[in-house]
Design brief:
Number of helices of chain A: 18
CATH architecture of the largest domain in chain B: 3-Layer(aba) Sandwich
Number of strands of chain B: 9
Distance between the termini of chain A: 46 Å
Strand content of chain B: 5-15%
Order of helices and strands of chain B: HHEHEHEHHHEHEHEEEHEHHHHHHH
Number of domains of chain B: 3
Shape of chain B: elongated
Order of helices and strands of chain A: HHHHHHHHHHHEHEEHHHEHEHEH
Number of strands of chain A: 6
CATH superfamily of the largest domain in chain B: P-loop containing nucleotide triphosphate hydrolases
Structural class of chain B: alpha/beta
CATH class of the largest domain in chain A: Alpha Beta
Distance between the termini of chain B: 44 Å
Strand content of chain A: 5-15%
Oligomer: heterodimer
Chain lengths: 459, 305
C-alpha cells in the first residue's frame, strides 16, 4: 500500500495540492489502523490528511477519482493480455514528437502515470503571466490548451491506425479491449483538460438585506440620484465613516487588558506607600488592520464609482495601512493621492490626473496580473483585500488563479459588486468564477448595503 | 473507555450517545482518537460540529473542556493568569514575616539573597489561575479539549496554539515547560470565517461536515425527537431538503430541523400543510427575507413528495 499512496501523493502534488511530507507520514502511520478494503474509510483517511480546506477538497476528489477509479480500471478478461500492444501504442504516441513534453505526458498518462500530464495542465492554467502582450494575450490558457487537444486527437488517430494495421495479428476480442482501454484513458485526459475545475462555494452565500423602505434614499441605486441627493448621500457616507472610526476606537478599549505592566504599576504604587493597589496593564497594540482596496472605475460601474472612492478615502482616514488602487484595464495606485489631498480634491485628481485609460475595456485578468507582480508580496495573513467591481472582464481571461493565490495569502478577501444582482451571471460577468474564491461577496448598490458592509466590517 | 477499537466501533459508540454520522466522519474521528492528532472540523453553522466534540467526549467517558474563541482572545484568557490580587494580599499578610527574614541580614545583598531563596513562595501554582488550555494539559486523566470557532481568533493566537497542538506542551516563563500528563483529544471547529494557516492545518486531521443526506437527517430526527410520527418525520425532512434548495441567506441546518420537529410536536400536528409551514416559519428561518421567500413557496415546500 505504501508505494500506492506515495504514487498518489506525487500525482496530487502535480495537480497543485500542497501535501507536506509530514502529512504523508501521518497518513502512512494511520493506514494500518483502518480497513483498506473499505473504500469509504480509505478515502476518508487520504482526504482528512491531504485536503485541509473546503477549496482543496474539490480538487482532491477529482484527483482521487482519476487515480483510483479511472486509471486503475481492471481489464475485464485477464486471460487476454493486452499489455504488450498498449505499450507499443504508448511508444508510438511518445514517438510522434520525441522532444515534446506534451506527447511524453500523454504517453505516460496512457501508461497509467498521470503525474506529468497533471503537471502540464497546471502549467497551462497557472502561467497567466507569460509576458506576451497584445491581441490574444488574454486568451492565455485557452491558447495553451490547444496543442494538448491536438496531441490527444493525434493519439486517437495512432490508436485507430495501429488497430487497422494489426488487424490480422491480434484477436478481435483483444482488439476490442485495447480500443476500449486506450479510448477510456484518452477520454479522461480530455475531460481533465476541457472540464474546468468547479470550486466548492466557500463564501458563505451572498450577504443580502431585506429592503426596508424602497423609496427612501438608502434604497435608491447610485445611478438614479439627483445632484441634491448625491450631496445628501455624501453626508451619510461621512457619518458612516465616523462610525467606523468609533468602532476602531472601541477595539482599542477592549484591547487594553493584557499582561501586567510591572514598571507602570510600581510607579503608581509610590502614591500608596509602596502598595501596588492600582494595576496597570501593558496595552496591547490593536491588530493593525492592513487593507488593500481595488476599485473598478470603468464605465459599467461609473455611477457607483464616486461613492466607492469616498469609501476608500474613509478607509485610508481610519486605518494606518491602507493601499488603494483603481483600475480599468491596468492598475494604478492612488494611496498617495488620498493621503495628501482632502477628499474632494483627491477624488477629482483620481478621475483626472492618473494615467488610467477610462475609455478602455475593463480587463480583470490584466489588472490581476499587474497586482500580482507589483504587490503580491505585500499581501499577508494580516491583509484584508477588498475588490470593488462588477467582474465584467469583456470575455478576457479572468485569471481566477491569481484570485485564488490572493485568497491563499490574505486574511480575508471581500468582493463588493455595485451591479444589480439580477445581472451578475449574465454576459461577460465573471462573478460565477470569482465568487467561490472569495470569503465574502456582497452586492453594494445603494447606501443601505454600503452602510451594512461598513457596520459588519471586521478586519 | 480509552479509545475506539475500529471505525465501526466508533460509529456505534457515537450513535449510542445520540450522534448519528456518516462512515467518513466516523473514520476521521477514529483516526484522530487512535493517533492523538488534533481534529479540525469545518462546516456550515448548525450541522453539529460542537455536538460532535461533546458526543466524542461522552462516548469516551472523558470530561470536556471548552475554549470559546473570539477576536482579542489572548494567552491570559486561554492558558493561565497570575492571580495578582491574591499575590498582593499574601505579601501584605506576610509582610511582618518578610521583615523578620531580612531584619537579621547584614547587608542589602544578603537581604536580597534571603528573599530570593523564598521566590517560589510568590510564583507558584498557588497563585496561578489555570485557563482551559492549561487545565486540559494538566488534567491527570485524558480529556477532550474543544477549541470552538477557532477562525474567530487572531492569527497570533493561532500561532500560539501550534506548540500545544504538535507537542502537547505549554511554556510558562516563571515555571518552565509543562508537558501534558495525558494527551487530550483536541477538536477545533471553524465556520470558515477566514482560512486557517497552513501550519495549523498541517498539524490537524481535517473533517468537513456538510448538511446531512435525507436518510441520515431522518435518523437524527428519529433519535432526538422520538415522539414524532414516522410519516410526518419523513415529510418534514423532505420539506427541509426543498427549503435548502431555495436561495436563502442562511440555510436551515440540523439544529433547525430538530427545533421544527419539536415545534410540530408541541403544536400537536400530524400533517404538514402550507399553513403549518407558514405558522412555524420562525423556527426554520432566522432572517425576515428568508422567511418571506419560504412563505411564498410554502405550497411547494409542503407538497407531499
Amino acid at each position: 500500500m505504501v508505494p500506492l499512496i506515495l504514487d498518489f501523493v506525487a500525482c496530487a502534488r502535480a495537480a497543485g495540492l500542497r501535501v507536506s511530507t509530514g502529512e504523508v507520514l501521518d497518513c502512512l502511520g494511520q493506514a494500518g489502523r483502518i480497513d483498506p478494503l473499505d473504500e469509504s474509510q480509505f478515502f476518508s483517511l487520504l482526504r482528512a490528511n491531504m485536503a485541509k480546506s473546503r477549496l482543496e477538497q474539490e480538487r482532491f476528489d477529482r484527483i482521487y477519482h482519476l487515480y483510483f477509479h479511472e486509471l486503475q480500471r481492471e481489464i475485464e478478461d485477464p486471460s487476454v493480455s493486452i499489455a504488450a500492444q498498449t505499450e507499443e501504442i504508448d511508444a508510438q504516441v511518445r514517438a510522434m514528437a520525441p522532444r515534446d513534453p506534451i506527447a511524453g505526458a500523454i504517453a505516460d498518462f496512457l501508461g497509467g502515470d498521470p503525474t506529468a500530464y497533471l503537471h502540464l495542465l497546471r502549467q497551462i492554467d497557472g502561467e497567466g503571466d507569460s509576458g506576451r502582450r497584445g491581441p490574444g494575450a488574454n486568451l492565455g490558457s485557452l491558447v495553451r490548451r490547444l496543442p494538448v487537444l491536438t496531441a490527444l486527437d493525434q493519439a486517437r488517430t495512432i490508436l485507430a491506425d495501429y488497430l487497422a494495421a494489426h488487424r490480422r495479428q491480434i484477436h478481435w476480442e483483444a482488439r476490442r479491449q485495447i480500443d476500449r482501454h486506450i479510448r477510456q484513458r484518452l477520454d479522461s485526459a480530455r475531460r481533465l483538460l476541457t472540464e474546468p475545475e468547479r470550486h466548492a462555494v466557500s463564501a458563505q452565500g451572498i450577504r443580502r438585506k431585506p429592503p426596508e423602505n424602497p423609496d427612501r434614499l438608502g434604497e435608491r441605486t447610485f445611478s438614479g440620484l439627483s445632484p441634491a441627493e448625491v450631496d445628501q448621500m455624501r453626508q451619510v457616507v461621512a457619518r458612516l465613516v465616523r462610525k467606523l472610526k468609533d468602532a476602531v476606537g472601541l477595539r482599542h478599549a477592549a484591547r487594553s487588558r493584557g499582561l501586567l505592566d510591572v514598571k507602570k504599576t510600581l510607579r503608581r504604587a509610590a502614591r500608596y506607600q509602596g502598595v501596588p493597589l492600582e494595576l496597570r496593564h501593558r496595552r496591547r497594540p490593536p491588530r493593525k488592520a492592513r487593507l488593500m482596496v481595488l476599485c473598478d472605475l470603468s464605465g459599467s460601474v461609473w455611477s457607483a464609482a464616486r461613492f466607492m472612492l469616498n469609501m476608500i478615502y474613509a478607509f485610508q482616514d481610519c486605518f494606518d495601512r491602507v493601499r488603494s488602487f483603481v483600475f480599468v484595464a491596468g492598475l494604478v495606485e492612488v494611496t498617495g493621492l488620498f493621503d495628501h489631498h482632502d477628499i474632494d480634491r483627491a477624488i477629482a485628481k483620481v478621475l483626472t490626473e492618473t494615467d488610467l485609460e477610462y475609455g478602455a475595456a475593463t480587463d480583470y485578468g490584466l489588472t490581476l496580473r499587474q497586482f500580482r507582480s507589483a504587490c503580491m508580496d505585500a499581501v499577508n495573513r494580516k491583509t484584508t483585500v477588498i475588490v470593488i467591481g462588477d467582474g465584467r472582464s469583456n470575455y478576457g481571461n479572468p485569471e481566477e488563479g491569481i484570485v485564488a493565490e490572493i485568497r491563499d495569502r490574505c486574511r480575508r478577501l471581500i468582493w463588493l459588486n455595485p451591479e444589480s444582482e439580477a445581472f451578475w451571471y449574465t454576459g461577460d460577468s465573471e462573478m460565477r468564477t470569482y465568487m467561490p474564491l472569495c470569503n465574502e461577496v456582497r452586492p453594494c448598490q445603494n447606501l443601505n448595503q454600503l452602510s451594512d458592509f461598513i457596520r459588519d466590517l471586521v478586519l | 473507555m480509552n479509545g475506539f477499537d475500529s471505525v465501526e466501533d466508533t460509529r456505534r459508540a457515537l450513535e449510542a450517545v445520540g450522534y448519528i454520522c456518516t462512515p467518513q466522519v466516523a473514520t476521521v474521528v477514529f483516526l484522530a482518537a487512535a493517533t492523538d492528532k488534533p481534529l479540525l472540523v469545518e462546516g456550515p453553522a448548525g450541522v453539529g460540529k460542537t455536538e460532535l466534540a461533546k458526543a466524542v467526549a461522552q462516548s469516551l467517558g472523558r470530561p470536556m473542556i471548552r475554549l470559546q474563541c473570539y477576536e482579542g482572545l489572548d494567552e491570559a484568557k486561554a492558558l493561565y493568569e497570575w492571580e495578582y490580587a491574591k499575590q498582593l494580599l499574601y505579601t501584605q499578610i506576610v509582610k511582618e514575616k518578610v521583615r523578620e527574614l531580612i531584619g537579621a541580614a547584614a547587608s542589602l545583598s544578603e537581604a536580597v539573597e534571603r528573599i530570593a531563596v523564598e521566590e517560589s513562595a510568590f510564583f507558584s501554582e498557588r497563585f496561578m489561575l489555570a485557563r482551559p488550555l492549561l487545565k486540559a494539559i494538566t488534567a491527570p486523566d485524558p480529556v477532550v479539549l474543544l477549541i470552538d470557532e477557532v477562525d474567530k481568533s487572531d492569527p497570533e493566537f493561532e500561532a500560539f496554539l501550534l506548540e500545544l497542538l504538535s507537542d502537547f506542551q505549554v511554556t510558562i516563563p516563571e515555571l518552565g515547560t509543562r508537558r501534558a500528563a495525558s494527551i487530550p483529544l483536541v477538536v477545533l471547529t471553524s465556520n470558515s470565517f477566514r482560512d486557517m494557516s497552513d501550519a495549523l492545518k498541517r498539524r490537524c486531521l481535517h473533517l468537513y461536515i456538510d448538511y446531512p443526506p435525507p436518510e441520515q437527517e431522518l435518523a437524527i430526527v428519529r433519535s432526538k425527537v422520538p415522539g414524532l410520527a414516522e410519516a410526518l418525520a419523513r415529510h418534514m425532512v423532505a420539506a427541509m431538503e426543498r427549503i435548502r434548495g431555495l436561495e436563502l441567506k442562511k440555510k436551515p441546518s440540523i439544529s433547525e430541523t430538530l427545533d421544527w420537529a419539536r415545534a410540530l410536536i408541541a403544536l400537536q400536528l400530524d400533517t404538514l400543510s402550507p399553513e403549518v409551514v407558514e405558522a412555524t416559519l420562525g423556527v426554520i428561518c432566522k432572517h425576515r427575507e428568508d422567511a418571506r421567500q419560504v412563505a411564498q413557496q410554502s405550497a411547494k415546500v409542503a407538497a407531499s413528495s
